Each structure stands twice: as C-alpha cells, then as structure tokens.
C-alpha cells in the first residue's frame, strides 16, 4: 500500500524543479509516489522531469489549467492514503514526509494538515493561518519572525497554505476536490480548509514538517491580472462561506474601500471581480446550501442576497469612478490607433541632431573647396554651433523621454479600457442568460 502521494504542480519550473525533486526523493519513508503535473510549460520542464526523474509519474497538460484544476488531475491519478500538494518552488527538509504522516495520528479522524514554512533567510513564512473579518485577507502566524521555536506546538488552525498541504484520502472523500470555480491561483487552499471545517474535520498545523518556500508567482506583482484573480477569488470565497452578518459587513466595507485611493489596475480588477461574482451568485448560493444547510440565514432570507448584490454592484460603480474611466473620452468613443513602436523609434532617431557636412559637385576643385569650408567652419563657427546644437539635443532628448512616458501610459490605459469593455460585453451576456441556468449547476462548481 502506498502511504503517500506527493503531487507537484509545475509551470515554467525549470529553475526550481531539480532542487525540489531531489529533496522529495531524499525523504526517508517506506512508501510514497511522486506525481508531477506539468501545466503546459514551454521551458522544457516536463522533458526535464522525464529525463532526470523517470521514477516520477509525469502528467502533461496541454494548457495552464491553474492551481485547482491542475492539482485535481494529479489527485485523481494518486493511489496514496495521504495526498500532499507541494509547490514547485519548495525544498523540503529531511524528515518532512514522516512528520506529516505522523501528524495525522495526533487526532482521530480525517484531516487536512499543513507545514511550517520558512523563507530562504530562515524567517517564518507560514505557521498556520487565519482570515481577517470581514475583508477575508489572509494572515499567517509568525510571518517574517525569526524562527526561535515559538511556533513549534502542533495545533488546529483556520487554514494552512497550499504551498505544502496534505489531506487524508478519507477527508478527500468527504470534502471533495479543490474548487475550480474560484480563481486560477488564490483561495482554493483556504476554501478547502473551510469546507473541511464545515464538515466537522480538523485542519492542523504540524511544525515538525518543515520546508523552504521561495514564493515565486505566476503573476507580475501589482498587475491587473494579479488583482483580478485575487479579488475574484476573495469575493467568491466570502459569498460562499461568510455568515450573513459578516457577509453584509463585507459588501458594505468593499463599497467604502472603493471610495479610497486605488490604483487603476486594482480598481478595474475589483469592478470586474464584483460583476463576475454577482453573475454567478446562484452557483455560490447552492454551494453555501450544501455546506451550511438550513442553519444559514442567507438560505432563508432571500432579501439578503438582494442586499449583497446591490452593494457589490455599487462597489463596482465606485471602482470604475475611481479609475476615472467613465469620464475619459475614449471610454465611449473609438480611438485612432496609437503610433506603432517602430514609428516612435523612428521619431527618436530623427530627434538626434547632426552637424552639417560640406559637399561640392565641382570637378577636381570640389574636394579642395570642401576642405577649405570645413577648416574655416571649424575655426570660425563650430564652437558657437556646438553650443546651440547641444542645447537643442538636450531639449530633444527630454522631449522624447516625456513623449515615451505619455505614449506608454496612454497605450496601457487603452489596453485596460478595451479589456474592461470586452469583459462588460461578455458578462452582460452572462447576466442575460442567468435566468436560463439558475436550475442548472456545472460539474466544476460542485464544490
């Protein structure tokens, strides 16, 4: 019998995989398998695993399916009694696997169990986690503290992070797979833990199971894409799990937050995330009902959902106002295309001044005339011309720098505006079709 299945989801992971897999295969444990699920990498990650670690079971996905879907595929292929999800950018310590397996025996019954995770400098990244109310922002115990043993006691926690998370097969049979409907990179692990706790199972922190996490990201930090994935997942999680009072507080607080200073990317991402979740609120209602049943007041009071939807749509309007898109002319009218990057480079080249080069078409004597004019110019005028040319060159350079900054800003705003318009068209179609799908629930939304 295979004791544990270690599932490593990889995407563009060549920089990390050798250290990660070497540490995993060095674990002193009687029976475990390693499953590498490659999410459509283009950097040779899958071929590297196949050649260097043939003992690993390799699954090749054609596309990047995200955290939940990719790991679900790995878990379906696993045969172990404990299933462990491990990020590609981790290096587990000796004894890590044995500590996780032993941790499941501390309390009877199915469970989810997580690890003590350190940064490469030895400070703590994660020693169990909790969520702030009502924002649902994730916080980690011990974050950035020096590890002096202050978090060495096993205990129950609200959640453990998906960077290294284990679930017993009996718990998986009760809780189900990761929810593929939340996002592609955020809150799937937290949702898993909350679903386990809703089913009466324990979520445990096991400090003896240690590893280092480099905490890489598939997103550019602070980008529109990162904000969108985060806010979509966070809002969907809250609609799925928060008790009625906290849910009301959440939507009111989100509306107030959109009155404050937000970056353009953040504001537009919030606007889309709110609308996405309003459009699929019927799905989230069904998930709440399966998790919390008749004890959930939101299932009894239909007006509660109206309040939530109205406040999220109000927050959306405020977010768009904060981004100032509704007051910009190009928000409602077509734009002439911007100059191409090649045009900008050509303009930049033409801004560089060149001194006049003397020429003559007179036969024989022409060369002498050119030499005389050049020499005379060098003695009589070059010093003055150089002074003027240098001033003009500096002016041209500063002007081009300003122009390029403005060009990049306008190009980015046009890109975001078009993305928003495309999203609104798509989501408006979804809302119009909402009445037709209220009685249906897609397979991926079963969690």
List the helices and strands and how they pair.
Blueprint: E1 4-10, H1 14-25, E2 32-39, H2 45-52, E3 57-61, H3 66-77, E4 82-87, E5 90-92, H4 96-103, E6 111-118, E7 124-126, E8 129-131, E9 138-140, E10 155-156, E11 164-168, H5 169-175, H6 188-198, E12 202-213, H7 224-241, H8 244-257, H9 264-279, H10 281-292, H11 297-300, H12 302-323, H13 341-350, H14 365-380, H15 382-432, H16 434-437
Parallel strand pairs: 1-2, 1-4, 2-3, 6-12
Antiparallel strand pairs: 4-11, 5-12, 6-7, 6-11, 8-9, 10-12
Helix pairs in contact: 7-9, 7-10, 8-12, 9-12, 9-15
Describe the structure.
The protein is of the alpha/beta class and 447 residues long. It folds into 3 domains: 4-213, Alpha-Beta Complex (Spore Coat Polysaccharide Biosynthesis Protein SpsA, Chain A), CATH 3.90.550; 224-327; 341-414. 50% of the residues lie in helices and 15% in strands. It has 16 helices and 12 strands. The protein has helices at 14-25, 45-52, 66-77, 96-103, 169-175, 188-198, 224-241, 244-257, 264-279, 281-292, 297-300, 302-323, 341-350, 365-380, 382-432, 434-437; strands at residues 4-10, 32-39, 57-61, 82-87, 90-92, 111-118, 124-126, 129-131, 138-140, 155-156, 164-168, 202-213. Strands 1, 2, 3, 4, 5, 6, 7, 10, 11 and 12 form a 10-stranded mixed beta sheet that branches. The radius of gyration is 30 Å and the shape is globular. Residues 325-335 and 437-443 have low confidence and may be disordered.
């Amino acid at each position: 019998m295979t004791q544990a299945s270690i599932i490593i989801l990889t995407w563009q992971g060549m920089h990390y995989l050798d250290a990660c897999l070497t540490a995993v295969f060095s674990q002193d444990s009687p029976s475990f398998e390693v499953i590498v699920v490659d999410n459509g990498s283009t950097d040779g990650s899958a071929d590297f695993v196949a050649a260097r670690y043939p003992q690993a079971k390799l699954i090749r996905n054609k596309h990047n399916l995200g955290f939940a879907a990719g790991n679900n595929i790995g878990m379906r292929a696993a045969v172990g009694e404990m299933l462990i999800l491990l990020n590609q950018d981790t290096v587990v310590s000796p004894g890590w696997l044995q500590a996780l397996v032993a941790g499941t025996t501390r309390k009877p019954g199915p469970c989810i169990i997580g690890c003590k995770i350190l940064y490469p400098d030895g400070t703590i990244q994660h020693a169990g986690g909790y969520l702030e109310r009502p924002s649902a922002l994730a916080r980690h115990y011990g974050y950035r503290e020096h590890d002096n043993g202050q978090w060495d006691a096993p205990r129950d926690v609200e959640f453990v992070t998906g960077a290294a998370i284990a679930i017993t097969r009996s718990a998986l049979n009760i809780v189900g797979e990761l929810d593929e409907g939340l996002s592609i990179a955020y809150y799937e692990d937290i949702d898993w833990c909350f679903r386990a706790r809703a089913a009466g199972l324990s979520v445990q922190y096991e400090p003896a199971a240690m590893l280092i996490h480099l905490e890489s990201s598939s997103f550019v930090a602070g980008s529109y894409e990162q904000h969108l994935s985060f806010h979509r997942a966070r809002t969907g999680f809250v609609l799925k799990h928060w008790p009625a009072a906290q849910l009301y507080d959440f939507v009111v607080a989100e509306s107030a937050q959109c009155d404050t200073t937000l970056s353009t990317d953040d504001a537009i991402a919030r606007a889309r995330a709110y609308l996405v979740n309003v459009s699929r609120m019927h799905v989230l209602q069904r998930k709440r009902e399966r998790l919390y049943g008749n004890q959930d007041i939101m299932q009894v009071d239909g007006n509660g959902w109206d309040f939530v939807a109205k406040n999220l749509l109000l927050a959306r309007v405020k977010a768009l106002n904060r981004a100032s898109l509704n007051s910009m002319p190009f928000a409602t009218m077509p734009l002439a295309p911007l100059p191409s990057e090649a045009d900008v480079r050509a303009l930049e080249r033409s801004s560089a001044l060149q001194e006049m080069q003397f020429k003559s078409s007179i036969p024989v004597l022409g060369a002498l005339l050119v030499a005389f004019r050049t020499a005379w110019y060098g003695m009589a005028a070059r010093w003055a011309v150089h002074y003027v040319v240098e001033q003009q060159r500096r002016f041209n350079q500063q002007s081009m720098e300003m122009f390029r900054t403005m060009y990049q800003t306008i190009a980015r705003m046009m890109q975001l505006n078009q993305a928003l318009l495309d999203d609104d068209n798509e989501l408006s179609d979804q809302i119009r079709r909402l009445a037709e799908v209220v009685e249906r629930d897609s397979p991926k939304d079963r969690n």
